[in-house]
Amino acid sequence: MRRRSRHPVLITGLCLALTGCAVGPDFRQPNSPKVSAYTATPAGDVVKPGTAVGDGWWHGFASPALSAIVDRAVAGNLSLTAAKARLRGAQEMADASAGRLWPQVDVEGGIARKRVNLVTFGMQGHSPVFYLYSVGATISYSLDLFGGDRRQVEADDAKAEAAAYRTAAAYVMLTGNAAVQTVSFAAASDALAAATLAVTADREALAAVLRGAEAGTLSRSAVTAAQARLAQDEALLPGLRQRVGTAQNALAVLMGLAPAEWQPTPISLADLALPGDLPLSLPSQLVRQRPDIMAAEADLHAASAAVGVATANMFPRLQLTAGLEQAAASTALFWSSDSTQGGVAAGLVAPLFHGGALNAARHAAQAEFEASAAEYRQTVLTAFQQVGDILLALTNDGDALVNADRALAAAAEQRAMTQAAFEHGAANRLTLLAAERDWNLARADHAAALGRRWADVVGLYVAMGGDWRHWAAQADEGNAAP
């Protein structure tokens, strides 16, 4: 691409020097999106548009076991601990950057052994050796006429702000993951228990069929059919055991423990209750609630300030210094007025020729600002997509759960009727075992559908930004984070 032409900046620099302005763009918060909706609201859900996520939203699931797991994860998660530490480092760096706006005072002292060469002064004789004792202080101050230091402080403050929001985002993801893994553990446990009962019924039925085949009352095809049902149902168990184990291991790690160090208490989906109102913030509210969007905005702010820093580097810098020192060749004379020396100085450094480096650095900062602006917009769009996907998933989950409810109700009714018929001698043991098997398989399918439903409900809380403000306020009170 064609490079921009370089123009003299002397007149502009003189004007800014008189006013002490900070060069570069003043950051403006991006406008709220004009989008007013996501996708269709899930039918049958208790969704309240314009509602924000409440404090400790997982406690609304009415499950002490789930609440205990999420709370313990927040207290012990190592990734969140690392994020807090990095946040403190970013905040300290911002404080260190702010120090450059104040006068810099230094104290120094020393003892030096010196030899005077008398020949240099046209004298003959032995060159004497003496010790020079000195102690003094210097003070320096940059007038920051063009605001380069102020823009740098602004950039570092924005970076610390971004780190705070990313720490909050880590908290939101942690609470969501802990809740989802708890729901997954409960759903897999329920499904495994039901599938295990179905396999038990299959095995009992196979044994009965084998006895019938030996007695000649049942055919070989009945045996192979019973064996096929058993094999088919047994094939479900390894996957379910895997889901239970991986969810349990994931929960242990989320709490900062090795998997072998933690054993969960039994949890069932029946222990959970749907909260009264599911939050659904408007798009204009979402950009002020999700910490990942606010972190992207802080990155944009830092990039804007960096343009000002690069611009200020193209203008002169004025430095004021003053010093006062006591120096003497004898400790006896050290504190006499004749040993006092000092001075005041002002220095001006103006860039004249840097091979185009300063101009290129400014263009690079502008390009980074444009990239940050695009990344901010992309973060907003991704957030809207996530909310839309969750709303769509909740709609489909609702349909799937309705079908699972119907299938479970039908299987339960069939099981009850078969049980009654068996008790009255109108059905044999194999028919009863088949009904028992179908009911347990329906229970397993229902647990899977309900687990997906609960996981997407948790996903909606996360997509709305979680409750990070309450957590951040508590962390500030405890001097922990952010």
Automatic annotation (TrEMBL):
It is a lipid-anchor. It comes from the Bacteria. It is found in: Cell membrane. Keywords: Lipoprotein, Membrane, Palmitate, Signal, Transmembrane, Transmembrane beta strand. Its main location: membrane. The keyword Signal applies. One of its GO terms (molecular function) is efflux transmembrane transporter activity. One of its GO terms (cellular component) is plasma membrane. It holds the Pfam family OEP. Residues 1-22 form the signal peptide. InterPro entries: MdtP/NodT-like, OMP_efflux. PANTHER family: BLR4455 PROTEIN, OUTER MEMBRANE CATION EFFLUX PROTEIN. Belongs to the outer membrane factor (OMF) (TC 1.B.17) family. NCBIfam families: outer_NodT. This is RND transporter. It comes from Nitrospirillum viridazoti CBAmc. The lineage of its organism: Bacteria, Pseudomonadati, Pseudomonadota, Alphaproteobacteria, Rhodospirillales.
